[in-house]
Design goal:
This protein has 17 helices and 9 strands. By secondary structure, it is of the alpha+beta class. Among the domains are: 1-138 and 253-301, no CATH class; 306-387, no CATH class. It starts with a helix and ends in a 13-residue tail after the last helix. Keywords: Coiled coil.
């Protein structure tokens, strides 16, 4: 506990340790920089496990800055099992509510908050932001499609929901009470909720409704979404209540924070099996955060490389420039930079081939990489082409430079009086380094002398062997010449 406190004392948000729940929340250097900026209003929240030996769950809040994720705060939490009282919030919800409330008190008010299907995160967001909570929550499209696809792929259960046609007619007057489904009647005896083709149609319809917005025209007729809803009342309340009317979010899924966990686990925690909590916190703040800080300064501030959004945008632009356009008109608007085609509705960068062709035909100028600084606003026009400058002036802010931390001394510090008397001496670290260098050189010299002595002794033994063999040969060939005191050549 003390080690964790020493690491995160500068970015501490909250701490609690009881028998029921234990949690620790801390922020990074990106918190004050991005929260105070009006250019960053979209954030992602998610949790991951299997990062430490204590079994704590790690939550993270990541900001979307030009297509890249930069963490602003983390929460380490562990809740004891079977401690929830009926009718009260669980320990996870309580910890998340406290975590979000501490962030809100420090100026954190997101416009869009992406999350997966975690009900604890959704309940905590709605509790901290009661008025705007339902509107700022954006569910991940990938998780939505995956959950519905798995549910529709399961066999029928014994208890099926009872369809009341009268209640449906009271809610929507266009429902025919005498309607009986006859298509695919042979499949009704099978234990399948839907077929493969039906699942594909449902998922496509759900993805279309997820991406629809009144800023985007519908099809080649140019009908807005508000007019479409008025004409066809088929939208469910969850979609109608979700979203901000005057802004269009940049992201569609939570893959940004999923990639954040992937880098943390496979790059920075790869060599630590069942790491301690203090080590996990140290790796996050001292390893991962420092690399992201260098990336932010290099990519966002000094523009040494293009941002993630610019790279994706240029790929889609080049693809649209070489594509063929049919004669169908999709209400392409170069002022608002919107189009009513299917590709624009599902595009992650709000671009299609019709906008590319129309822009080139109107301006007689093609877009070249790094010619402009490309931004994606939340309001029309959805693409901004800003002049490129170095350093970049269109960014949330320059990351404050952190001074070097004091290094611990190798020996105990001297008293003031002894230090005054030894002021002329070299620093203690230099003395220790010089002493270590002399010790290494002396050890190397001693090893060389010992090796040379071993070689000399081996040479003396070989000399005696050769001498004895020579004397034996001389005795066998001419005994008269075998004189005991014969001086042999050396």
């Amino acid at each position: 506990q003390n080690k964790i406190w020493d690491v995160v004392v500068s970015g501490w948000l909250m701490f609690r340790s009881t028998n029921d729940v234990k949690y620790l929340g801390f922020k990074t250097g990106f918190f004050d920089l991005l929260v105070q900026s009006d250019q960053v209003t979209e954030y992602h929240v998610d949790s991951t496990c299997k990062t430490n030996r204590a079994g704590f769950e790690l939550f993270g809040v990541v900001a979307n800055v030009y297509g890249s994720g930069y963490p602003i705060a983390y929460l380490i939490v562990k809740v004891a099992s079977n401690t929830n009282v009926s009718g009260e919030d669980t320990g996870r919800i309580t910890a998340l509510k406290t975590f979000f409330q501490e962030m809100k008190d420090r100026g954190f008010n997101p416009t869009f908050f992406f999350t997966d299907k975690d009900q604890a995160e959704i309940n905590a967001i709605e509790a901290v932001w009661p008025s705007e909570g339902p509107s700022i929550i954006r569910l991940c499209l990938w998780h939505l499609k995956r959950a519905i696809k798995l549910k529709l792929s399961k066999p029928k259960t014994a208890i099926l929901p009872i369809y009341n046609e009268q209640a449906a007619h009271l809610e929507y007057d266009f429902v025919d009470t005498s309607f009986v489904p006859v298509e695919d009647a042979r499949r009704r005896n099978r234990n399948l909720l839907t077929t493969v083709n039906q699942r594909a149609i449902i998922l496509d319809m759900m993805g279309k409704h997820y991406n629809m917005h009144h800023f985007i025209p519908e099809g080649h007729l140019g009908i807005s979404v508000s007019e479409l809803v008025h004409q066809n009342v088929v939208l469910y309340d969850g979609w109608a209540k979700s979203g901000v009317d005057n802004k269009l979010p940049i992201g569609k899924t939570t893959m940004m924070i999923e990639a954040h966990w992937k880098v943390l686990k496979r790059t920075h925690l790869y060599h630590y099996n069942r790491a301690r909590l203090d080590l996990v916190t140290f790796v996050i703040l001292q390893h991962y955060y420092k690399k992201l800080k260098v990336k932010y300064q290099s990519m966002v501030v000094y523009r040494s490389e293009t941002t993630t959004f610019e790279s994706r945008f240029m790929k889609e632009w080049i693809k649209g420039r070489g594509a063929q356009v049919s004669g169908t008109t999709y209400s392409t608007d170069l002022v608002r930079l919107v189009c009513g085609c299917h590709s624009f509705l599902h595009s992650p960068v709000t671009l299609c081939k019709h906008l590319v062709k129309a822009h080139i035909a109107a301006t007689h100028d093609d877009l070249v990489n790094r010619k402009y600084f490309i931004q994606r606003p939340h309001t029309p026009p959805f693409i901004s082409f800003l002049p490129t400058t170095n350093p970049n002036t269109h960014h949330p802010g320059n990351h404050p430079r952190e001074g070097p931390r004091p290094r611990p001394s190798l020996r105990r510090r001297l008293s003031v009086s002894r230090w005054c008397n030894r002021a002329a001496r070299s620093p203690l670290v230099d003395e220790e380094r010089s002493f270590l260098a002399h010790e290494i050189r002396l050890r190397d010299k001693s090893a060389n002398v010992r090796r040379l002595r071993e070689l000399l002794a081996r040479a003396e033994e070989e000399k005696e062997d050769e001498k004895s063999q020579y004397m034996a040969l001389l005795t066998n060939s001419n005994p008269l010449q075998a004189i005991p005191n014969l001086d042999l050549p050396t």
